[in-house]
Amino acid sequence: MKRTILITGSTDGIGKATAEALVDQGHTVLIHGRNQSKLDTAKAELSKRNASAGIQAYAADLSDFAQVEQFASTVLNKHRSIDVLINNAGVFKVPNKTADNGIDIRFVVNTLAPYLITQRLLECLGASGRVINLSSAAQAPVDIAALGEANRLSDDQAYAQSKLALTMWSRQLADILGEQGPAIIAVNPASFLGSNMVKEAYGTQGKDLQIGVDILVKASLSDDFSSANGLYFDNDKGAFSNPHPDALNATKNKAVLERVEEILARY
Ligand SMILES: NC(=O)c1ccc[n+]([C@@H]2O[C@H](COP(=O)([O-])OP(=O)(O)OC[C@H]3O[C@@H](n4cnc5c(N)ncnc54)[C@H](OP(=O)(O)O)[C@@H]3O)[C@@H](O)[C@H]2O)c1
Question: Which residues contact 265 (CB under 8 A, 6 or more apart)?
Fold first, then answer.
């Protein structure tokens, strides 16, 4: 069946390669990026692969909550129904570590923006939809105060905390929405895949991006993931697995989700 799939951060890396794979399979892919010229290029390349795929492209800098809101409302206006949202856009080591709103950009792009997008798109995802959140093997206990601030954490800590916070709200939101909401699944696409993020952070070519693509395509489409609401898939192990123990603690998950909502309510 042909699906409509929105992928954030699909101008490069795993997101772009996943868009290519899904377009090749005939799905309608909605791409997103922060850089208009990269977005135009990606749209042209994808359209060339499959002229009937009806690629649509959305520009928004996810470090800016106003742009996130605008992005979500434009998508909502255009689509009554979306089958899969892949919250893929992410940042690790960046020259400018603080977003204009004064919060560490890793928390803004990796944790807070995906939550806002998910909340805004719930009505068009419905109970049969899926939300795939790009987690990581890098997961560190979340400093609740640092989640809404800047300059408190090293790059490694900011990234690992942002990814555990994403994993924690995924499970908590899945529990809250239950069968009324989409399946919300956190996925580590595998470690050290050869994207710009990995090349720039570790100076290594990294592993084949296709490893991440294959699991995101499976998470989006396969029945194996249809009853995975609230679970964590670890592609380093090739299996559903336990995330960091904090993400199995309902009290801690609730605290993270409440903090996320409190921060977003300020903007
Ligand atoms: N690679 C790995 O081994 C690995 C392992 C675990 C998890 N992950 C996760 O997988 C996801 C994809 O990462 P990747 O490795 O493919 O990295 P990547 O090549 O750097 O791609 C990241 C994507 O996110 C976009 N992006 C970054 N900041 C943004 C912002 N402020 N607003 C909008 N879009 C923004 C980038 O846009 P531009 O094209 O403009 O740069 C790009 O399209 C990330 O969430 C990452 O944390 C990756």
Answer: none
- Give me the pLDDT at residue 63, please: 98
pTM of the model: 0.99
Helix, coil or strand: residue 117: helix
Please provide the size of the chain in residues.
267
pLDDT the model gives residue 88? 98
Q: Which two tokens stand for residue 133?
A: 């959140």
Q: Which domain CATH number covers 183?
A: 3.40.50.720
Closest atom of ligand 1 to 193 CA is 3
Q: Are 130 and 85 in contact (CB under 8 A)?
A: yes
Question: What's the angle, vertex CA 72, arms to CA 71 and CA 73, rounded to 5?
Answer: 95
Cβ-based neighbours of 189, under 8 Å, separated by 6 or more: 14, 134, 211, 212, 215, 216, 235
Could you identify the residue written with the tokens 């470690």? 191
Number of domains present in the structure of the chain: 1
Domain of residue 187 covers 4-265
Q: Evaluate: CB of 89 within 6 angstroms of ligand 1.
A: yes
Beta strands in the chain (DSSP E): 4-7, 28-33, 56-59, 84-87, 130-134, 183-188, 232-234, 239-240
Q: What is the DSSP letter of 109?
A: I
Name the residue of 109, 197, 209, 236 to mutate for ligand 1: max ligand atoms within 8 A of Cβ.
197
CA–CA gap between residue 24 and residue 20 (Å, rounded): 6
- Residue corresponding to tokens 């993400």: 247
Closest CA to ligand 1's atom 6: 136
| Ranges of residues in the chain whose predicted pLDDT is under 70 | none
Q: Which residues contact 133 (CB under 8 A, 6 or more apart)?
A: 87, 114, 166, 167, 170, 184, 185, 186, 187
